[in-house]
Amino acid sequence: MKAVILARVSSKRQEEEGLSLDNQLETLRAYAKEKGMEVTKEFVFQESAGHKIRKRFDELIAHVKSQPDIGAILAYRVDRTTRNFRDAVLLDNLRVEEGKELHFVYNRLVLTASSYGRDIQDWDLQVFLAKQYLNRLQEDGATTWLHKVRNGEWATKAPCGYMNVERDDGSAWIELDPERAPLVKKAFEMYSTGRYSIKALAKELAKLGLTTNASSQRPMYTSYLEAQILKNPFYYGDMDYKGKLYQHKYEKLIPKWLWLKCQEVRESYGKTPLKYNTKFFAFKRLITCAKCGWHLSTYTTKNINYVRCHNCNAVHVKEATLLEQASNIFTDLTIPPTIVDDLREKLHMYFKDEQTFYEDNVERINGELKKIRKRMATMYDDRLDGRITSDEYDKRVVVCKQQEATFLEELKGHSEADEAFVLSCSYILEVAKRASELFMRSQPDQKNRLLRFVFANASVEGEKLNYKLKSVFAGIVECNKSENWLPRLDSNQRPWR
Predict the structure, then answer these.
(1) Which pTM value belongs to this model?
(2) What Cα–Cα distance (Å) separates residue 205 from each residue in 201, 230, 255, 445?
(3) Between the N and C ends of the chain, which has fewer C-beta atoms within 10 Å?
């Protein structure tokens, strides 16, 4: 009789713990020789026997069906062939409908088309036990996963930009990949501008050298970029486990506001089609028609850029005409260097008064955190003493953890705001000191960024650029005209509220 051999392990761990493929093959070959069978093919593979369709197992079934002269399938144990009812049905059909014999050497079980009674009962029992064992493994795995994520740990491969490491004590940990993390952060920053489609961003990242994983040179592809990077909350500090977010312990790559900005861009229904999004213009997606409110578009003909309204045709003007008007705005925004230095010094003085405001808030937040942690300690004692159930304890802890995370984020914001206040003001002053120079020397995409930075809104009427500046820049223009640079400061200076 001709036969085929099936040797399988579910994981590398099984291979190392004695149920190796070599051991199975040695036993099955000896069995075939003892029974006088001719082995025509051996199916040897590592594959899970879960609910997913298994490619190699299906190949075995198809091969046996297509070869009428094959009379038997030899396997080491029942659970080496199946741990789910789907596979059991396929094997049973081969036995009953095709007349194939099933030999399970370790179980000392041989099934034929005429098998009945105790043999069939033994087969059904072995299949049931194998299925239950798989269910138990899945349940244990789910429990372990849930315990880890509640503890702020990620138990599988780290996302792109992070790497799995082993600490000195032998425990697993995840830390930032020094080579890939900056590229992933740049991906978020680029996408948040709204100037890149997923496809265009993937191409830019490929140029920078970011691949799907550190060990391969495969370029970043769009589905992976969107699903595994841009939509992944891991980068700002949360893990998504079965649709629920848990805060992790690892270093954050980006702030949460940047991640939210990327989701806003990704979910926007007003994205510009890619074919119109490949060139950079100074007024791209920035100005509207004063008559109909339609976004004005820019096109090039004979090396000259024109801005027009394709809706009502009320605007058709050279881009250079609008840029000349825009340059006058930045001339008005230019602050004399001596004034900038004086303002910066006075802002530092003002900042000292702001410190009191921040310190009061930090004290309040620390007080709230102390109350939450005390509440959690009390709940833990209640659980140990049986005053509340484990489920009730878990629910209350989740609420407290969320409150704690909110206050910690607020606390971090206050600590960063101290320095950020002066840095932001200094940056605005530095830009204002060189505003006209920066605008005139910049490339079209940089001009677009500068205009977005200062405009609250802008429209075109005929050939005239109408605009409203953001309040801080409108204030600079007003102070530049009046030469009164700190109109709100008086002899009794107090922090603004």
Answers:
(1) 0.42
(2) 6, 13, 20, 19
(3) C
